[in-house]
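Customer escalation, tier 2.

The customer says the design service returned an amino acid string that "doesn't look like it belongs to this structure." They asked us to rerun it and document both sides in this ticket. The original C-alpha cells are below, unchanged.
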C-alpha cells in the first residue's frame, strides 16, 4: 500500500513538473524567434569609452548634422568607361540621393585616373541601425546587375555592414535547424532507440526557449548589447551543453534502473549521483563566461552574460524537466534495449571502456608520457596561428558584393577612398598636423573638412570648418581600410600627430576602430585568461576536496587547449586556406574550450572520487573510467557536432571558432579524458587527493595493478 501511494505521489509530481514546464515553454517559445529584433551589429558601439576611436566619434558628431556610414557604389569596365556608362552612373547617383535614409546632396561621381572605374559615395544615416541593410539593398536594386561588360558593386562600410547583417539573419532559422538535426542524428546513433532521443531534445528546446526570454529582456532593456555572434553561440551552446547534461543524467539513470525496481527510486539515486557533477560543470562554465565582463569591449561583455544565461537555463531545465519526463517514461523509454532490474554491475555494459581502463592500468606511466608529448608536439603549431585583423576580403567564406567592390577600389583608387581616417586637432595647429600627417608612409592625401560639409567635393583651398576650436582633417590611406597595412599607418599616424605640441590630436575612423578593437582584445586576453584559470581551480578544489587533482586537471586542459590551437593553425592555413585568425579568437577559443573541456574532467573525476571512497583510488580510477567513458565520449561528440553547425554561417570568424571548439572537444574527450587524466591519476595514486582525507587512505585497490582484471 505504501509503495503504491509512493508511486502515485511520484507520478503526480512528475506530471505537475512536466505540465508546468510546458506552460513555460508555451509562453517562452515565441521569444526564440524574436532575438534578431534586439540584436545589433554596429562594432563601433562596442569600443571602450576611453578608446581614441571612441573619442574621435564623439568629436565627429559636432561636425555633421547627422552621423553617416558611407556606401561606395563602384562601376568598372576594364576597357575604359564609355560615355553611356558615365551617363548611367550620373543617373544612378541622382536616384541614390532620393532613397530614404541617404543623406544628400551626394558628391559627384569620382572617376579613376585610368578611367576604367568610377565610384559614387553614398552617405547613409547611421541612425538607421539594422535598417542600413535595407538601404544598401535598395542601392543595389537601383544600380542593377552587371551588363555589357560593366560591373557594379556596392561596397564600403555600409556595404560590408549590410552583408554582415544578412549573414547574422540566418541565425534564427538555418543555424537552429542545422543544430537540431545534428543533435537528433547523434542521439539516434547513441541510444539506438526510436523513443529516448525525444526526451533530451525536448528538454534542450525548452532550455533554449527559456534562455531566449531572459536574453531578449536583457537586450530589450539595453542591459546587454546582443549581436549576431553572441546569438549564434547561444544557440549551439545551449543545445550542445544541454544534450551533454542529458546524456550524463540518462546514463546514470540507466545504471540505477538495474538496481532499483521502480523508476522514481532509480531517478532519485541517479539525480543525487549526477546532479553535483552537472551543477559543478554548469557553474564552472557560467563563472568562466561571466569573466568576460572584465572585457573592455562591449561585444565581449555581452557574450559573457548571454551565454551564462543560456547555461543557467539549461541547468534548471535538465535537472527538473528532464528527470520528470524520464520518470514518466520509465523503462519503456529505452525500448528496445530496456534495462532490467537485475542488480548487474554497471561496468558490464561498458566492455570496451573496461578494456581501455585495463590498458591504462598496465601502462599508466607510458600512456600519460606519450600522450603529453604528442599534445606538446601539436602545440608547436601555435606559431603558425597568425592572429591579426581579418581584412574584408577574408571576412567571409564566400565572395560577397562588398568584397567584390573593395577589390575594384583596390585596383583603381587609393584603397582608403570613401573610408578616410579622421584627425581632430586645434585650429591653430591644423596646418602643422596636416603636414606631419602627409609625411607618414601609407597616407595618400590629407584634406580639411570644409564649411560645405562632408558630402561636398574636396577643395584644398576651402576654409576648414571649425567646431569648438577644432578642425577635422580627412586622411585617405593608400591601403584598404581593413588591411594590416592600413592599421600600421594608423599607428604611425597617431604617433606622429600626437607629437605636435598643443595639437591635442585625436585619430579616428573605420581603420582606427579596428586598431583599438585589436588592442582591447589583446588586453582582454592577458587579463581574462588568468582569472578564468583561477576561478576553475577554486571550483575544482571545492568539488574534489583536493589541491593536487585540480592543478593536474587544469594543466591537462591548458595543454589540450594549446594543442588544439596548434592543430587548428595548421588546418586553417593548409586545409581551409584562411589567412589567419581574428585578434578575438584566442580569448573566445580559450573560454569555451577550457570551460567546456574541464566539464568532462569534472564528470570523470567526480565519479572517480565517488568510486575511490568505496574501492580505493586506483581501482576507483578504473571503475570511473569504465562507467563514464561511453557517455562522456558521446557528450563530446554531441558538443563538437553542435559547434560545427556554426560552419553554416559564411563568416570566417565563426567558422574558425566552431572548428576550434569541435577539434578541441574531441581531442579532450578522446585523448585527454580517456588516456592522459586517468593514467596520471592512476600513476600518482592516493596522493592525487592531497591534502584531503582520501590521500591518506591506502586500500587494497590503491596498489598498482589492483582491480585491473575486475575492470
Amino acid at each position: 500500500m505504501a509503495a503504491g501511494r509512493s508511486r502515485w505521489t511520484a507520478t503526480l509530481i512528475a506530471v505537475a513538473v512536466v505540465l508546468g514546464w510546458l506552460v513555460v515553454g508555451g509562453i517562452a517559445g515565441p521569444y526564440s524567434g524574436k532575438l534578431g529584433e534586439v540584436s545589433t551589429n554596429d562594432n563601433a558601439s562596442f569600443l571602450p569609452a576611453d578608446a581614441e576611436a571612441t573619442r574621435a566619434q564623439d568629436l565627429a558628431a559636432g561636425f555633421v548634422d547627422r552621423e553617416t556610414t558611407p556606401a561606395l557604389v563602384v562601376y568598372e569596365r576594364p576597357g575604359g568607361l564609355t560615355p553611356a556608362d558615365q551617363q548611367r552612373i550620373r543617373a544612378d547617383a541622382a536616384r541614390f540621393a532620393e532613397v530614404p535614409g541617404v543623406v544628400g546632396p551626394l558628391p559627384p561621381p569620382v572617376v579613376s585616373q585610368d578611367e576604367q572605374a568610377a565610384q559614387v559615395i553614398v552617405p547613409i544615416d547611421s541612425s538607421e541601425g539594422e535598417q542600413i541593410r535595407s538601404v544598401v539593398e535598395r542601392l543595389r536594386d537601383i544600380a542593377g546587375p552587371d551588363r555589357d561588360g560593366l560591373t557594379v558593386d556596392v561596397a564600403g562600410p555600409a556595404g560590408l555592414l549590410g552583408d554582415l547583417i544578412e549573414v547574422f539573419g540566418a541565425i534564427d532559422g538555418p543555424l537552429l535547424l542545422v543544430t537540431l538535426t545534428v543533435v537528433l542524428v547523434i542521439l539516434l546513433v547513441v541510444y539506438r532507440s526510436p523513443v529516448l532521443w525525444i526526451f533530451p531534445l525536448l528538454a534542450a528546446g525548452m532550455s533554449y526557449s527559456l534562455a531566449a526570454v531572459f536574453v531578449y529582456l536583457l537586450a530589450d532593456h539595453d542591459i546587454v548589447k546582443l549581436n549576431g555572434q553572441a546569438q549564434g553561440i547561444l544557440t549551439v551552446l545551449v543545445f550542445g551543453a544541454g544534450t551533454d547534461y542529458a546524456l550524463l543524467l540518462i546514463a546514470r539513470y540507466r545504471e540505477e534502473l538495474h538496481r532499483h525496481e521502480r523508476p522514481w527510486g532509480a531517478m532519485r539515486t541517479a539525480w543525487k549521483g549526477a546532479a553535483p557533477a552537472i551543477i559543478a560543470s554548469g557553474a564552472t562554465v557560467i563563472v568562466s563566461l561571466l569573466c568576460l565582463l572584465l572585457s573592455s569591449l562591449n561585444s565581449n561583455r555581452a557574450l559573457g552574460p548571454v551565454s551564462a544565461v543560456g547555461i543557467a537555463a539549461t541547468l534548471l531545465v535538465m535537472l527538473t524537466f528532464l528527470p520528470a519526463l524520464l520518470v514518466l517514461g520509465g523503462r519503456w523509454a529505452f525500448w528496445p534495449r530496456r534495462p532490467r532490474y537485475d542488480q548487474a554491475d554497471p561496468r558490464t555494459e561498458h566492455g570496451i571502456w573496461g578494456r581501455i581502463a585495463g590498458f591504462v592500468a598496465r601502462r599508466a606511466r607510458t600512456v600519460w608520457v606519450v600522450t603529453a608529448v604528442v599534445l606538446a608536439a601539436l602545440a608547436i603549431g601555435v606559431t603558425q596561428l597568425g592572429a591579426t585583423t581579418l581584412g574584408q576580403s577574408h571576412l567571409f567564406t564566400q565572395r560577397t558584393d562588398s568584397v567584390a567592390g573593395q577589390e575594384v577600389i583596390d585596383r583603381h583608387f587609393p584603397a582608403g577612398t570613401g573610408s578616410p581616417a579622421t584627425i581632430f586637432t586645434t585650429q591653430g595647429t591644423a596646418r602643422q598636423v596636416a603636414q606631419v600627417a602627409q609625411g607618414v608612409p601609407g597616407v595618400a592625401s590629407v584634406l580639411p573638412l570644409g564649411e560645405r560639409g562632408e558630402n561636398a567635393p574636396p577643395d584644398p583651398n576651402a576654409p576648414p570648418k571649425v567646431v569648438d576650436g577644432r578642425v577635422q582633417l580627412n586622411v585617405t590611406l593608400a591601403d584598404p581600410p581593413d588591411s594590416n597595412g592600413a592599421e600600421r599607418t594608423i599607428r604611425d599616424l597617431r604617433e606622429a600627430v600626437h607629437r605636435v605640441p598643443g595639437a591635442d590630436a585625436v585619430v579616428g575612423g573605420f581603420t582606427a576602430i579596428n586598431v583599438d578593437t585589436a588592442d582591447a582584445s589583446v588586453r582582454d586576453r592577458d587579463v581574462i585568461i588568468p582569472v578564468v584559470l583561477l576561478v576553475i581551480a577554486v571550483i575544482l578544489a571545492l568539488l574534489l576536496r583536493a589541491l593536487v587533482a585540480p592543478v593536474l586537471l587544469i594543466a591537462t586542459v591548458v595543454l589540450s587547449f594549446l594543442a588544439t590551437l596548434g592543430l587548428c593553425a595548421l588546418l586553417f592555413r593548409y586545409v581551409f586556406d584562411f589567412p589567419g585568425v581574428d585578434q578575438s579568437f584566442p580569448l573566445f577559443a580559450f573560454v569555451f574550450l577550457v570551460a567546456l573541456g574541464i566539464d568532462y574532467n569534472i564528470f570523470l573525476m567526480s565519479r572517480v572520487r565517488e568510486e575511490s571512497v568505496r574501492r580505493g583510488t586506483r581501482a576507483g580510477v578504473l571503475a570511473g573510467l569504465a562507467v563514464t567513458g561511453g557517455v562522456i565520449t558521446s557528450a563530446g561528440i554531441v558538443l563538437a557536432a553542435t559547434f560545427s553547425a556554426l560552419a553554416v554561417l559564411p563568416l570566417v570568424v565563426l567558422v574558425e571558432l566552431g572548428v576550434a571548439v569541435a577539434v578541441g572537444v574531441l581531442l579532450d574527450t578522446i585523448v585527454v579524458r580517456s588516456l592522459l587524466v586517468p593514467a596520471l591519476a592512476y600513476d600518482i595514486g592516493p596522493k592525487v587527493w592531497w591534502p584531503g582525507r582520501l590521500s591518506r587512505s591506502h586500500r587494497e585497490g590503491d596498489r598498482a595493478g589492483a582491480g585491473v582484471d575486475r575492470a
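Tier 2 assessment: The sequence is consistent with the input. Residues 704-711 have pLDDT under 50 and may be disordered. Residues 67 and 509 are 12 Å apart (CA to CA). Sent an explanation to the customer and offered a walkthrough call.
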